């Protein structure tokens, strides 16, 4: 039986990406949840839209009623303030909040506390007081996100005006260089398991609209390693840095929620929400990232370009192309027909325990769609039956099969959650 997962803050962009990361999981069932009718109802049939706001006195009481009514086991917060409220009340909440501990979540919610915790680190920006400024400087809301209330301050008069502003500002040196976000994952043993930098290439209202993955440099690795050494994390977290006038990266902020474009890592075969849930389920996690270059351009939906031309697709059947021997994976079928349009060879490779031909007949799936149907014995590995003399990819919901293919054949592999990154939106 699947464990129900509440995605709290449902309908926002981050929440939507978490939802689709888990939609096809065989272990977890995502449920969008929030306080008003928004985008969640368009993508989730069982969306919850009547929760109180987190500042309401009866929030925890109503949240627990919802948790019990929907048999919620885990809650994933998708907003910094929501994460802090949930962790402050974790002992009262009848579900596990998938987030770093309260001390870390509070520390990361306030930039002033973050900088204090990392005092002395060589990657901290210079912090000014109102009495000792150096212009230009950058004023940031201590609890802001997405560039909210942030502003460049060029003169003493502009700085004086900030004193009457109700916002609590942190005054930092101005960082004119490029900005980088580093997705990180720390397991329940405290081991930093994953770090993936990505650069901002286009902004929209202070939020990343286009990004691409990048190689981890010694400088960036030093930053995340030192942060991980000083601050206790669990699950997903991210770091944002910006280069100063000399090109040296300085810390902007750290967060324990999912960043707006974290799903770029998912398309490298690292499903961070799924890994976090497995870790909080006391499971040992493993992953083997793909190595290709990928970029993401954000509008209302995500669109991808993968720099890996392929002529053959090896496609799993159970829980990938078809669910429960009766229900099509429509995302997979869309991709299948895209391949047919492009003249890409499709090989169905399966360990189906029944007669695959009878099953296909039963669900009215034509065998003519596939160039070949390969039936693999249960005691054998699928990579043993694959020919990659032409560029190929492999799609399977089983991590062990994907890992073996990647290690023995060196071709990209994709989880069942990754069909979206394989869709060519430019195709007419």
Automatic annotation (TrEMBL):
Question: Domain ATP-grasp spans what residues?
Answer: 110-281
Nucleotide-binding: present as a keyword of the record?
Answer: yes
UniProt keyword Nucleotide-binding, yes or no: yes
Q: Which UniProt keywords apply?
A: ATP-binding, Nucleotide-binding
Top-rank taxon: Bacteria
Question: What Pfam families has UniProt attached to this entry?
Answer: ATPgrasp_Ter (PF15632)
Q: Could you tell me what this protein is called?
A: Carbamoylphosphate synthase large subunit short form
The record lists the organism as Blautia wexlerae
Organism placement in taxonomy: Bacteria, Bacillati, Bacillota, Clostridia, Lachnospirales
